[in-house]
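Our preliminary data section would be incomplete without showing what the modeling component actually yields. Below, a chain of 328 amino acids is followed by its predicted structure, encoded as tokens that our downstream tools consume directly.
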Amino acid sequence: MNHMKNVILKGNPIEWLLEPDNPSVRYLTMRDILGLKSNDPELVRAKIDILSDDRVRRIFSKQKPEGYWEDPRKPYNPKYKGTYWQIIILSQLGLDKSDERVRRACEFIYQFQLEEGGFSTYERSGAWQQIREYEMSCLTGNVAASLIRLGYGDDDRVTKALNWLVEVQNKDGGWLCPYWKAHINDKHSCFMGTIAPIDAFSEMPKSKLTNEMESIIDAGVEFLLMHRLFRADHHGFKVIKNTWLNLSFPSFFYDILRGLSVVTKLGYVNDERINDALELLLLKQGSDGRWVLDSSPIGRMHATLEQKGEPSKWITYNVLKVIKSVGI
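Predicted structure:
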């Protein structure tokens, strides 16, 4: 049973999140924290306002007519500016495929999905053995999660990606990139390789998950929880990487906030092994009830979404989702 439920928060940041300067956070707060229904007129207006945000407009201003950003042959590169990264960002900003520019971007990246289902960082040309090295569970998980958020959950190509992630899960319950090296060497799985696939499965409605997917989720979450989301299970539960304690946005990689977000979204809210990470998260709250952005690739994206070291609406919104899930 979770023992963190009697914690008193230092302040209520809801009104701050509802201010109009960040339309995405305003919309997502209304939807996910306040629980407004999809046909609520205020929520509908808030979603429309996202398109007029200068940050969103700047990202789209860099998009090519064919739907891609930067190099059409390498959707992963340059890092944070290539097509994959924009799809991940836009999915986290509250957009979906109702926008024609989003549809063009998504259809463009499907050409990089390999026959078995994973997504590649390079186009399908050249030496095949070299191409396969860039078919990664972390990339496929991030892309699949983003596509589902953007409205492609019923697309057979997304199902194909999820089925591939089922097939390549490592023996310890996690995932390793590149996936086949895990099976050859039976190495310890990677946190980043694991959180992204679990994130993708968490975005699917429970009714659409197969029994096999349910088992895969249980094993993947157990891999994360046996490490308390950030501790080494065989070394006195020492912190594995101090950078995982830094709260980041956009959510590209792994930190304790993403770990907590995914496992609590999947319903694992009463397992005491989330408490260490949850306690650290709550300790990072400022006296004004807000959380600070610790990490972000500022200057390397097409648009700066927030400033590092400053109170962050994105981090605060994501923390409040966790808090709502665990019932604090």
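The first helix runs from residue 14 to 17. The longest strand covers residues 291-292. Preliminary results of this kind motivate Aim 1 of the renewal.
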